[in-house]
Amino acid sequence: QVQLVESGGGLVQAGGSLRLSCAASGGTFSAYNMGWFRQAPGKERIFVARITWSGGATYYADSVKGRFTISRDNAKNTVYLQMSSLKPEDSAIYFCAAQSRAGGDYRYWGQGTQVTVSS
User: Fold this and answer.
1) Cα dihedral 5→86→81→107 (10° resolution)
2) What CA–CA distances, in Å, run from 43 to 5, 16, 93, 112?
3) What would the pLDDT profile of 49-94 be if each residue is shown by its tens digit?
4) Residue 119 and residue 107: Cα distance in Å, rounded?
5) d(CA 61, CA 50)
6) DSSP state, 56?
C-alpha cells in the first residue's frame, strides 16, 4: 500500500509560480509512474502531467505544456510539479497519483493540495 502526501499549494498571483511536492511512503517508489491531476470546483478531475518510473519520459496536458514541469527524485520518494506563469484557470485542488509501470489505472491517490491563482 502506497501513501501519497501532497504539499506546496497556496495562494499566488497570476503570472507567479509554485512548486508542488508529493511524498510517497509504504512502497517501492521507483515501481510506479507518477501523475498529477487537478479538480476545479464543480468540474471533473483531469490529467495534468505524468512521469515514467525512471523519469525518462514526461507527458503534459495541452493546457499546461510549456508552463508546468513534472520531475521526480527516486532517492527521496518524491515527485514534483513546478508551475510557472500561473493563470486563474489553474486554480484547483491538485492530486498526485501512482500508476504501475505497466500502465493502466492510477491505483493510489493523495488527498490533494489547494492551488488558488488570483487575477
Assistant:
1) 60
2) 22, 24, 11, 15
3) 999 999 999 999 999 999 999 999 999 999 999 999 999 999 999 9
4) 35
5) 9
6) -
